[in-house]
Amino acid sequence: MREITFIKGDGIGPEIADSVIAILDKAGADISWDIQAAGEAVIEKEGSPLPQRVFDSVKKNKAAIKTPVTTPIGKGFRSVNVQLRKELDLYANLRPCCNLPNVKTRYNDVDIVVVRENTEDLYAGIERQIDNDTAESIKIITRKASERIAEFAFDYAVKNNRKEVCVVTKANICKLSDGLFLDCARNVSRNYPQINFREILVDNCCMQLVQNPNQFDVLLLPNLYGDIVSDLCAGLIGGLGVAQGANIGKDYAVFEPVHGSAPDIAGMNKANPTAILMSSVEMLNYIGNSECGDKIKKALFKTLNDGIMTADLGGNYSCTEFTKQIVARL
Ligand code: NAI
């Protein structure tokens, strides 16, 4: 039996956590869960939204599943997600975006993989108030981080039979920072002649994505554009309820959905667990149990094909009922 860390956040976190644990247990994933609470709920007791025990657990188990954590807007503690990614050096944020069976969307053949740099850019959190009316935020881009994320994207493309990597920047305006990211991608691309290399500016990329997403394969982006564009891509395949994600480093990986804690539907049993379930399937692949992952994917796809869906996809199944239907198909 393999121990895996389960970082439980807030909002819809507890609901989708119960769902994914029930499904993985039923599928015979042979996992013992090391449950670690994080976020607002633990601050009062432990003085931090992300206590050391969470890092220790991920370091021990090497892999984790995580549900979202609310980040206070414009004030309060630093994002738990950003801290976790930075401290564990989870430098690659991998967000595959592919149509799911029977989920009606504007386009039918979306199959895009977003590779987002996960440790720097404006997420470095280096900000200062210059005076009452002026604030400054520093965008950090380094050669080291840009080269390794470009290598990750090309390596992923080769291993997954992808044809193209398209680097997305605003290097016409941020000539030095985005210019460096672009330069690194160009350099790395030369080592992968079998993969087509393309360059696009982020504004044009967004327009092209909503008009003709089928033209894209692997997208490679700095942190902030990657965050925004991956939500856009989620919208192409049915919304945040179905968009999976993973934070991958050299030694550890944390699998989590693209979406946040969805406070507007928290506690209402309305959340779609598909995004975290698909992220967990990737976790199973990562630990070498793809057989179990395939089984879960099959049960999920059969459930969707039978027209069983949560409210975000136009259905009328609650989170728990939807979960039961998947469990029944296992
Ligand atoms: P959100 O992703 O939580 O919600 C956006 C919209 O999508 C809402 O209408 C929500 O109901 C819907 N939605 C999201 N996940 C869903 C699901 N599984 N099933 C059905 N509907 C779903 O984004 P929002 O509202 O901007 O952020 C809320 C909080 O989450 C913020 O504090 C933010 O910082 C945090 N956040 C945390 C992340 C993480 O822990 N990795 C990632 C993104 C945001």
Give a structural overview.
Helix content is 40%, strand content 19%. 46% of the residues are buried. The chain is of the alpha/beta class. The radius of gyration is 20 Å and the shape is globular. The chain has helices spanning 13-26, 40-46, 52-61, 80-87, 143-159, 177-189, 202-211, 223-236, 274-286, 290-305, 319-329; strands at 2-8, 31-37, 63-66, 92-98, 111-117, 127-131, 134-137, 164-169, 196-201, 218-221, 246-248, 253-255. The chain contains eleven helices and twelve strands. The strands form two sheets. The chain has a ten-stranded mixed beta sheet, with helices on both faces. Strands 6-7 form a two-stranded antiparallel ribbon. It has two domains: 1-97 and 241-330, Isopropylmalate Dehydrogenase (3-Layer(aba) Sandwich); 106-112 and 120-236, 3-Layer(aba) Sandwich (Isopropylmalate Dehydrogenase). The protein binds 1,4-dihydronicotinamide adenine dinucleotide (NAI). The site of 1,4-dihydronicotinamide adenine dinucleotide has 21 residues, from loops. Residues 9, 12, 68-71, 81, 240-241, 256, 259-265, 271-272, 275, 312 line the site of 1,4-dihydronicotinamide adenine dinucleotide.
Terminal CA distance reads 20 Å
The shape is globular
Count of runs of 4 or more consecutive helical residues: 11
Proportion of residues in extended strands: 15-25%
- Which architecture of the largest domain would the CATH scheme give at its second level? 3-Layer(aba) Sandwich
Write down how many β-strands occur, each being a DSSP E stretch of 2 or more residues.
12
Per CATH, the class of the largest domain reads Alpha Beta
Low-confidence stretches: none
CATH-assigned fold name of the largest domain: Isopropylmalate Dehydrogenase
Number of domains: 2
State the major sheet.
10 strands, mixed
Helix content: 40-55%
Record the strand order, biggest sheet.
2-1-3-12-11-4-5-10-8-9
Mean pLDDT: 96
Gyration radius, in Å:
20 Å
CATH homologous superfamily descriptor of the largest domain: Isopropylmalate Dehydrogenase
Write the H/E string, N to C: EHEHHEHEEEEHEHEHEHEEHHH
What binds here, in terms of ligands, is: 1,4-dihydronicotinamide adenine dinucleotide
What would you call the structural class? alpha/beta
